[in-house]
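DM from R.C. (forwarded with permission)

"hey, sorry to bug you on a friday — could you get me a structure for this? deadline for the figure draft is monday and I only need the backbone to look sensible"
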Amino acid sequence: MRPVYLDNNATTRVDPAVVEAMLPFFTEQFGNPSSIHSFGASVGQNVKKARQQLQQLLGAEHDHEIIYTASGTEADNTAILSALESMPGRDEIITSAVEHPAVLALCQHLEKIGRAKVHYIGVDSLGRLDLEAYRAALTDKVALVTFMWANNETGTIFPVEALAELAKEVGALFHTDAVQAVGKAPIVLKGSAIDMLSLSGHKLHAPKGIGALYVKRGSRFKPLLRGGHQERGRRAGTENTPGIIGLGKAAELAIAHMAEEQTRVKELRDRLESAILQRVPNCFVNGDPRERLPNTTNIAFEYVEGEAILLHLTRQGIAASSGSACTSGSLEPSHVMRAMNVPFTAAHGSIRFSLSRDNVPEDIDQVIDALPKILENLRELSPFWAGANKGPTEFKPVYA
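My reply, with the result:
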């Protein structure tokens, strides 16, 4: 049984070409890129090249708009705190109810300490943003609007360019957590109204421990980490040179494979999704079927626990993920499923399959062969299944 990895929204395998590019910067080219001697100057030139590679992937105007961080979480936190500090007289934040905890946890903390008022904009059953509620929340008290580019659980894409334009009408800064979108969807920041964008290397075949924050030239900005002149005074701390080089190489590869993400990977995703919907009763897709990432499908299986599905998949060498989390001894549906009003009987059984360019048709075949029997066996043990309507689910998001 070959291992099948379909949890690429959690993390990706580091591309061998990325590893190869990084290796010299652990040994031969070990200098500090901020040093003026030859050991550092050579490294500094390679850091600049990597910055330009990432600039190209993002469609940014200048390489100096890229600030390296240790993670997407740090980039998110930096953007939010910078906006509050650099926009005096404004103390409100607008975000969505389905953001990643890297955004939501900080917003909730800022509310708790009285630092900011936060507007959490809801979504519909497809995970699409409530645009009327967003427009109503926009006032001259808003310092920052922060919406994710694509949802990590469902893959649903928000129209961030248009959302940024609306933020500009009230003079607010606009940030997008694009951790899931970068490398999977085309991005062109030059000419957009987006002020800041966060990304994480390990989501696009670079190593863990490296991320970046794009800050449009001319945007107001205050650093989170202070203490040194690195990153033009915007992020103190000696640069993670191997990680930066790896992220640059991964960005170059992402450009080369972008068409493949949009075609071959999407075709594999669609084949997996279609087969599951045909072979497994009482299931449906969570999220917007049209505006979503090409690699992601989130399928809700009624009357069964997601954790049990994952356990049985794992036993057959298949890695996926669940939106459920075990907290305080009870299994709770994810905040994304709750915000979408997915029925309780289905929210617990929502499974995310997220592909990458590493996946092949045999991976899909293995899941298609294994999953129907797993669901059949688990439902036989479910006290809810005996009395369930075993026809089409009553909850029917628009799907085509």
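R.C.: lifesaver. Residues 125 and 340 are 5 Å apart (CA to CA).
me: no worries. Residues 324-330, 394-400 have pLDDT under 50 and may be disordered.
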